[in-house]
Design brief:
GO terms for molecular function: oxidoreductase activity. This is Short-chain dehydrogenase/reductase SDR, NAD(P)-binding domain superfamily. InterPro entries: NAD(P)-bd_dom_sf (IPR036291), Sc_DH/Rdtase_CS (IPR020904), SDR_fam (IPR002347), SDR_oxidoreductase (IPR051911). Keywords: NADP, Oxidoreductase. The protein has 282 residues and is of the alpha/beta class. The protein has one domain: 3-Layer(aba) Sandwich (Rossmann fold), CATH 3.40.50. It contains eight helices and nine strands. The protein has a seven-stranded parallel sheet with strand order 3-2-1-4-6-7-9, sandwiched between helices. A two-stranded parallel sheet has the order 5-8. α5 links the parallel β6 and β7. The longest helix has 29 residues. It is globular and about 55 Å long.
Length: 282
């Protein structure tokens, strides 16, 4: 069987890096991308091909990079949209440019890549696209509501994209990890709003910001184990042998607990308000 070929955005850190390393360890080919390819030297030493890619660039540039990736080995079997960052700040504190920048990377960047790979995947009639969402896809939280909204958007458009690509033999999955011990929450990786309003220091927003500081480097999830599961699931091997690729893949016990609670809360809300909600039909 031909070796899988992975195309990974945001491969310099986080899940993008972990998945790239895991795929390489299995003898797969990896095309790793990042805004600054010099940060990918370890992957290059392990055998990865490198391409520069800023997903916020003009769509023509993103498409050109994707075309180069498919030409390198004649195909790409797995696309991982991993580029993204967390915007730390309340709705009031975030200015319009900060909100746009967050969406431009986390949502519009992923959409550009999806649009660019779609014709290739349709033509070869096989492949897997993984868009990295978050446990935050399921619930907005004070101080991270904007980040959560970007990840919710990613998961929802992924569901639709999965339906669109299914007739062509292409699987599409939203990967929704809980808290994993990557550099994602580190000071250099987390983007804080320029404006800070003292009134939010007390209450839910302040509490959550403090929680992020405590959680940093103490997250329960092991990114190496997470990457192993991702590669298993997306290649239908190992722990996922004989199983279909789900449209959403949750990772981590904290994610499972959080989503279960969200589902319970949502069902309770439906039951509580059903008489009112159901009173509007003709």
């Amino acid at each position: 069987m031909d070796s899988p070929v992975w195309f990974i955005t945001g491969a310099s850190s986080g899940f993008g890096l972990a998945i790239a390393k895991e795929a390489l360890s299995r003898g797969h080919r990896v095309i790793a991308t990042a805004r600054n390819p010099s940060k990918l030297s370890d992957l290059a030493s392990a055998g990865a091909d490198l391409l520069p890619l800023d997903v916020t660039a003009d769509e023509a540039i993103v498409t050109e990079t994707v075309n180069k990736a498919f030409a390198l080995h004649g195909k790409v079997t797995h696309v991982i949209n991993s580029a993204g960052y967390i915007l730390d700040g309340t709705i009031e504190e975030a200015n319009a440019q900060e909100v746009f920048d967050s969406y431009n990377t986390n949502v519009f960047g992923a959409l550009k890549v999806c649009r660019a790979v779609a014709p290739h995947l349709r033509a070869q009639r096989f492949g897997v696209v993984v868009n990295i969402g978050s446990v935050g896809s399921w619930a907005g939280g004070a101080a991270v509501a904007l980040y959560c909204s970007t990840k919710a958007a990613v998961s929802i458009f992924t569901e639709g994209f999965a339906d669109e690509m299914k007739p062509f033999g292409v699987d599409v999955c939203a990967l929704e990890p809980g808290y994993f011990r990557t550099r994602f929450l580190n000071a250099g990786a987390r983007t804080k709003t320029q404006l800070s309003i003292d009134a939010y220091n007390e209450g839910p927003a302040g509490d959550y910001k403090k929680l992020l500081e405590v959680a940093n480097n103490n997250q329960p999830g092991d990114p190496l184990k997470g990457a192993r599961v991702v590669v298993d699931v997306m290649t239908k091997s190992g722990s996922a042998e004989g199983r279909d690729i789900p449209v959403r893949l949750l990772l981590g016990t904290d994610c499972l607990a959080g989503v279960r609670q969200k589902c319970k809360d949502t069902l309770a809300l439906l039951d509580e308000w059903e008489p009112v909600s159901a009173s509007t039909d003709f």
